[in-house]
Structures are given as C-alpha cells and as structure tokens.
Amino acid sequence: MKTIKLLVAPVIFTLLLFSCSNENDLEDRIIGKWKMTEKYDGNTKVDLGCSEYYYSEFRILFGKYETFSSYIDFEQTPQECKSSSALRSWRKSNFGYELFDFPNEILYVAYFEADNLIIEATQLPYKFIYRRFN
C-alpha cells in the first residue's frame, strides 16, 4: 500500500501543478521583458533617445494582459528620460498581437520576425524592433 502511495503522489502533484496554469499563457512568445534595439520613422532609422534606458514587459497578471515599461537602471537614466509610463493592454490577433488603451482603439500591432518582436504604430509611420531582455 505504501508503494502505491509513493507512485501515485508524484502523478497527482504533477496534475495539480499543470492544472493551475493556462497552457496558452505558458507558450506565448510575447510574455517577458523586451528591450528596444531599433526605431524607425517611416523607412528612416532614428536614434533610440530615452528608449535606450527602458525595457518593456508583457505579462498576464490576475487574468489581465498588460504591458508596461520600466527603467533598466534608474540611477543611470538621465533626468529628462525619467517619466511615468502608460500601462497598456494587449491581446492576440489573427496576425500577431494588438496593443490598446481601449478595446476598440488599437494603437499598435506586434508580430515576430525571427527572434525580434516588431511593434508598429497604427496611426503613424513608426516601427520599433525589440530583443528579449533578461
């Protein structure tokens, strides 16, 4: 009887562990921290400006799909680049992802090219390229 309990216990533990999370959430490539590496205005590559001091994080927190930015190193960030960041929502779409403040106001679309996360503004000719950030 003790042998059966020892064999069954790990199976039950594994089932409970995996039943607590949504499989799609665990496999979503966009979840995590990202750092902007390139910025474009139309077809022209432009300076990263203050973006070089920030990283963006996509996460699911209490069922909400959120993205926000934070400082890589607050002490090394110039004063003119220290500001609050907007908390946005995101969702999957047919061709990638949509970032929005209000569900019917899509501000950006996002997709992957190899390991790069590409985010494009919907109303302006801006394009941002991100790499995964530890």
Would you kindly provide a written description of the structure presented here, covering whatever features stand out?
Residues 1-23 form the signal peptide. It comes from Polaribacter pectinis. This is Lipocalin-like domain-containing protein. The chain has 134 residues and is an alpha+beta fold. The chain has one domain (24-132): Lipocalin. 17% of the residues lie in helices and 46% in strands. The protein has helices spanning 2-19, 23-27, and strands at 32-41, 44-46, 54-61, 64-71, 88-92, 97-102, 105-113, 116-121, 126-132. The protein is globular and about 40 Å long.
Morphology call: globular
Strand order of the largest sheet: 1-3-4-5-6-7-8-9
| Topology, number of strands | 9
Strand percentage lies at: over 45%
Identify the CATH class: Mainly Beta
Number of helices: 2
Helical residue percent band: 10-25%
End-to-end CA span: 47 Å
Number of domains: 1
Largest sheet: 8 strands, antiparallel, barrel
Order of helices and strands: HHEEEEEEEEE
Q: In the CATH hierarchy, what is the architecture at level 2?
A: Beta Barrel
Quick take:
Residues 1-23 form the signal peptide. With 134 residues, the protein is of the alpha+beta class.
Describe the secondary-structure layout.
Blueprint: H1 2-19, H2 23-27, E1 32-41, E2 44-46, E3 54-61, E4 64-71, E5 88-92, E6 97-102, E7 105-113, E8 116-121, E9 126-132
Antiparallel strand pairs: 1-2, 1-3, 1-9, 3-4, 4-5, 5-6, 6-7, 7-8, 8-9
Keywords for this entry:
8-stranded antiparallel barrel, Lipocalin-like domain-containing protein, alpha+beta, 2 helices, signal, Lipocalin, globular, 134 residues
